[in-house]
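From the pipeline queue, job 12 of 40. The input is one protein chain; the requested action is below.

Action: predict structure.
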Amino acid sequence: MMIKSFNDDDMATIKPQSPKEAVRQTWQCRETLIAFFTIVMLVVHLVLRFLVGYSGAVANAPLWATMFFGGAPLVWDLLVELFHRQFVSDLLAGISIVTSILLGEYLAGSLVVLMLSGGEALEAYAVRSASSVLRALCKRMPSVAHRKVDGAIEDADLSELVVGDFFAIFPHEVCPIDGTVLEGPGVMDESYLTGEPYMMSKAPGLKVLSGAINGESALFIRADKLGIDSRYAKIMEVMELSEQSKPIMRRMADKLGAWYTPLAVTIGIVAWVATGDPVRFLP
């Protein structure tokens, strides 16, 4: 399987992202705005109904606003997915929103809107947090190596290095490729890769890992692997694949939704017919 290598162009397009930036971008997410708006409208509704004493249209106005500005966009997205024959796990929630509007159960519908939009917002934040880790990993990976050719040191692109090339790692630099120490001694910080909170001694004949940070002494290394096969490149690949893929539970829920949604609707219809109360249909 091919491992993607990251060059200067990749570094230009993937910028580091702090947790604060992840939160800021999450707030720009439509689902987050809907969730926040729904919470505010629910509070206003409860104040008008129980503290001020209003009822009817006045108390329900915030809930109507929630249905229009929050429920309608979410239901539209679900209809688009349904049109493309994608029976996602949130389809039942969309049916609940529509049913609550038809039955006048606006409070129940608003709670479903909050549940749906809040779940989407949390998932968006999780994805952005994972992206920030990927950007941080990409930022610290060097794209060039100091290759030793005929006794001279020259900078070479990481993709140009082959197994057996000699290269130097200067103090405080990140090791670009897995290799073996030829000239030392020195120490390297591998905690970023192994989690071990101490410096690892390096002497001729010992292995070094790509992504490790060199200490105070320059080391000369022989490349044992290509850049695309190094430890760091494989970590980057796993992070990238995990970012692009849906969580396992999410994929499982979508698969079950194709069976659970029709079953739930059928049960609701049976309950409606058996009791004569349409509210029983509300999933």
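Job complete. The chain has two domains: 12-139+246-281, 145-225.
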